[in-house]
Write a structure and sequence with these properties.
mainly alpha, two-stranded antiparallel ribbon, about 160 residues
Length: about 160
Amino acid sequence: MMEEINTLCFNFFWSGKGDKIKRNPMISDLLEGGLRTIDCIAFNKALTSTWVKKYFDSENHGKWKYLLDWQLQHYGGPAVFRAKLNKKDLSKFINSTDAFTTEILQIWSEISCEANVNSTDHFLSLPLWQNSLIRIDNRPVYYKSWSGKGIQKVTDLFKDPNTF
């Protein structure tokens, strides 16, 4: 839907005759030679991702948070936002019937998912649950009982740096 809105905006700029300038320069800052037009897709992602901040705001007591809690209860609750699921795994792992929850999680996945491990320390600091880089039977995992006992990161599986 946002792609359609974005296309409509650019069609308006060019009177429906196709883009005369690539869209990236159009949305660039004036100092970079751009026109500072709004990229509706990026704007929507920015606005939607702010809901995660609102969700974790202890001063925000909106009733919508209860709905989000209910939607996420089987996937680790708020911990799902620490997850590192790519979009493909996200769609398999989380089956939310709420379009708003699905959109928040998809956009958050784009922002937070890491495709590579840079070092041993980086790997040890990764979340263990709902991580596309850590798989059992070719699927990301979440063990609620382990998570409830404080096992959250890869490093939590080690007694000391050399003992699993």
